[in-house]
Specification:
With about 375 residues, the protein is α/β, with parallel strands linked by helices. It has 2 domains: about 120 residues, Aspartate Aminotransferase, domain 1 (Alpha-Beta Complex); about 230 residues, 3-Layer(aba) Sandwich (Aspartate Aminotransferase, domain 2), CATH 3.40.640. The chain binds pyridoxal-5'-phosphate.
């Protein structure tokens, strides 16, 4: 088969199995309501959990930042791309996370690749939850370490696997909040298991920062842990922070080591300094405005209570990610289309993003939603899908 034929075959297979993906073009900023093809939709499918992506103060900070710093950073961090704006944000994030040091990365994907591949080498072992984010799995593969996957949050299986390997270094890697299921990794047990075996624990809390814990410090605060109990903490800035980029938090040696060794840190242009300025602003809002997290909690409760009453198949999630299981991709697509006809945007998530047979609607909440929006959404679910 030629490469051209392989492309054609893959595309047509995707079509025939309802797995073909297409982008929709937004004609409005990310927010509560988005415009697509001239029509407004109430948006239940972004990761802008706190509603900061289009916050006027954050927009102003970005504008002011670009007046001060220009647009492009013009170089990698180790060359001349590391500005005062980046450095201040790193210090603020270190304060926020309670870790000694923080290192900014251009995206969460790159942070994950950089961390795991810098820490491990051939002969080591990386242990990953079956439902870990794709970037963590890719990071494991890139590291050349042996990749061991354990059943979702099955800590006894993880413990068993850790005991089986005796050579090399060990790294346990997990999502803090699982991105497609919304459930929370059992960190206290994972810390115990990992450390009993001298393994380090890496937690990617892309969906926990800003959302979990009274102060929004994520899964670590949720379990009332000290940040030092997790060896490497990773956060993304494109979700609850509403901006762009990512960070790794840890001790002094970890961060200095990553500066020397993480290839996705070294060999790439630093993110625009104005984005760092904007993120400093959103970090202040995220810490100060507790009402955003409280509101999310109320919306989630209302949705789950209402969903139970109408018999919607929910998952074990207490976070703003509330998937509704449809099983097959066809049903997921049809339900998503129905919601759309009624003015609601909820994306269908299909394999390979989720395991075969677990296609779902991924409903996500934002602090900008009102109780009326939740009730309207439930209303469509109850009248259109019976
Ligand atoms: C979104 C996400 C990432 C990737 O972050 P980006 O900044 O979008 O590249 C990494 N890990 C998890 C768990 C995510 O949900």
């Amino acid at each position: 088969m030629s490469l051209r034929e392989r492309l054609k075959k893959t595309l047509s297979e995707r079509h025939s199995t309802n797995l073909y993906r297409q982008r929709q073009i937004l004609d409005s900023p990310q927010g509560l309501q988005v415009d697509i093809d001239g029509k407004p939709y109430i948006n239940f499918s972004s990761n802008d959990y706190l509603g900061l992506a289009s916050h006027p103060d954050v927009i102003r900070a970005l504008c002011k930042g670009s007046e001060t710093w220009g647009v492009g950073s013009g170089a990698a961090h180790l060359v001349t791309g590391h500005s005062r704006a980046h450095h201040i944000l790193e210090e603020e994030l270190a304060d926020f996370t309670g870790c000694k040091r923080v290192l900014l990365f251009s995206t969460g994907y790159m942070a994950n690749l950089g961390v795991v591949s810098a820490l491990l080498k051939r002969g080591d072992t990386v242990y990953e939850d079956k439902l870990n984010h794709a970037s963590l799995v890719d990071a494991g593969i890139l590291s050349r370490a042996k990749l061991r996957r354990y059943t979702h949050v099955d800590i006894s299986m993880l413990t068993e696997l850790l005991k089986q390997d005796c050579k090399g270094e060990k790294l346990v890697v997990t999502d803090g909040v699982f991105s497609m299921d919304g459930d929370i990794a059992p960190l206290p047990q994972m810390i115990k298991t990992a450390h009993e075996d001298n393994a380090w624990l890496v937690v990617d809390d892309a969906h926990g920062f800003g959302v979990l814990g009274k102060q929004g410090r994520g899964v670590v605060e949720h379990f009332k842990l000290a940040s030092q109990e997790v060896d490497v903490l990773i956060g993304t800035l494109g979700k609850a922070f509403g901006t762009f980029g990512a960070f790794v938090a840890g001790d002094h040696d970890l961060i200095e080591y990553l500066v020397q060794q993480a290839r996705s840190y070294i060999y790439t242009t630093a993110l625009p300094p104005a984005v760092a300025t904007a993120t400093s602003c959103s970090l202040r809002l995220l810490q100060k405005e507790h009402w955003r997290r409280e509101k999310l909690g109320e919306l989630i409760n209302r949705f789950r209570t209402g969903a139970k009453q109408i018999g919607l198949p929910l998952m074990q999630s207490t976070t703003p990610i509330q998937p509704v299981l449809c099983h097959d991709s066809d049903t997921a697509l049809k339900m998503s289309a129905k919601l759309r006809t009624n003015g609601f945007l909820v994306s269908a998530i299909r394999p390979p993003t989720v395991p075969e047979g677990t296609a779902r609607l991924r409903v996500t909440f934002s602090a900008l939603h009102t109780e009326e929006h939740v009730d309207q959404l439930l209303d469509i679910f109850s009248t259109k899908f019976k």
